[in-house]
Amino acid sequence: MSNEIILRINDNEFRWSKDNNRFELIKWYKCTENKIPEYCYVIAFFKVDRNGYDMRTVGERYIDALLQDTEGVKILTQYAFEVIGAKFRANDQIQQM
Fold first, then answer.
1. Where are the alpha helices (DSSP H) in the chain?
2. Tell me: the pLDDT tens digits for 32-78?
3. Three-state SS for 2?
4. Could you give the C-alpha distances from 76 to 58, 62, 72, in angstroms and in order?
5. Cα separation of 53 and 59, whole Å?
6. Which of 5, 25, 53, 54 could lock onto 44 through a cystine, CB 3.0 to 4.6 A?
7. Are 40 and 28 spatial neighbours (Cβ–Cβ below 8 Å)?
8. CA-CA distance, 87 to 10, in Å (whole number)?
9. Per-residue pLDDT for 2 more than 70?
């Protein structure tokens, strides 16, 4: 299954993972020694339930990405919270109809 890229800034990405059924922040790395041109791994993911949502980081990956690209990761994280927050509020309003 493919994933839905919502926003990518430099080597960082906010996406919906169909495989993991959640929103994720991803870090991409370009390979110079492998036949694979680039690979990625999750630096943070968002847990959403009926009471709200929160961001969970994976080890030190998020802070490492933040230190490498402070402005890009800050913008991406803020955007992710805005998108997820809007989705959560819309679902809440639909439930109250």
1. 61-68, 70-95
2. 777 778 889 999 999 888 778 899 999 999 999 999 999 999 999 99
3. coil
4. 16, 12, 6
5. 19
6. 25
7. yes
8. 25
9. no
Structure tokens at 53: 């949502």
Give the bridge partners for 16, in sequence order. 4, 23
| Beta strands 38-49; 22-30: pairing state | antiparallel
pTM for this prediction: 0.85
Q: Edge-to-edge strand order for the sheet containing 38-49?
A: 4-9, 12-17, 22-30, 38-49, 52-57
**Token digits for 97?**
């109809």
The residue assigned the tokens 């493919």 is: 2
